[in-house]
Structure formats: structure tokens, C-alpha cells
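Reopening this ticket.

The earlier resolution said the output was attached, but the attachment link was broken on my side. Pasting everything inline this time so it's all in one place.
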Amino acid sequence: MRKIVVSNWVSTDGFFAGPNGEIDWIVQDPGVNQATHELMKPDTLLAGRVSYQEFESFWPNVAKDPNSPKEMRKIADEMNEMTKIVFSRTLKEVTWENSKLINGNLIEEVQKLKKGKGADMVIFGSGTIVQQLANEGLIDEYLLAVSPVVLGTGKLLFKDVKKHGLELLETRNFDSGNVLLRYQTK
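Inline output:
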């Protein structure tokens, strides 16, 4: 069965975005990005409308820009090649290459995807999808990059999520003050 891995930046107080969706508070660190990349090998991205549209407006442009850092272009190429499953009831179409729009029942569709063929699936951002899948026990692993920032308010990654246990698999500290936590669900 395919795994679902959530890979998100969070503030020390548990927010994955500011009140208006902003992520400018993240303490960027190429070492965290590299470590996260090494810990997962997904071939499919699961996203909601907001995350999909943000990624679609960013990554294809990075891939085409010769002035973008080499590391960023490599990630952009991977994002472009990856299958992208977009869950939305409002979008009528998705145009980013290798994207598929699903407007059916999220839980049923993800259960089918988990039983299908392929490598792991990853979720970046997409807090409401994370919350719904966590409540159904469909997330297998969490990679949380904790930035040394307290936001005080914003969008909680685990808002309204039922209590469930996690097993710590690994921690990595970085000179930037970021900490990478890797958990699997029990």
C-alpha cells in the first residue's frame, strides 16, 4: 500500500501559515530542504485548490528561469514531473502538466489512491486536507520542519484533528535554528 507523507513547515506554536496564508516567517535553510528531500521519494502530490494554485504559479516559472538557483530548478523539475492530484469542488480544470482534478469524496478517493500502484504520495501545505486525512487515519508519516518563530496566530496544521499517537523516527537540528521532526503514525 502506498504511504501518504505530510511535509510541512510549522512555527514553534504549530501554525503552517499566517492568518492570511503567508509563509514569509519560515527561516529558510537549504539543509532542511535537502534533508526533507532525502527522506521521501514521492511520485504524487496531493493538494487542495489553494496550495495547487500557489504551486502552479511558482514552480513552472522557477524551472524556466535560468537565473533561479540550480537547487531550486531541480525541485521545480521534480514538481513539474510529479503527478498532481487536486481536490477541489470549485475548480473547473487544472492546466499544470501531470495534474488531475478530483471533485469527489476526498476520503474515498484517497483510499483508492493508497491501494493503487506507485511510490509514496506527499502533501505540502493543504491544511484542510491534512486535517481530514489525519482524522481518518490515512496519513502514514509527518516530516515537520519547525522554524524558530512564534506566530501567535495563523492557520493551525492540526486544527480540529482527533488525538492520535505518533512515533518519533528521527530528529535533525540545523544551525539556522530549524528542527526537522520525522514521525510515523502508530
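Reporter confirms the inline version is readable. The chain is about 30% helix and 30% strand. The mean pLDDT is 95.
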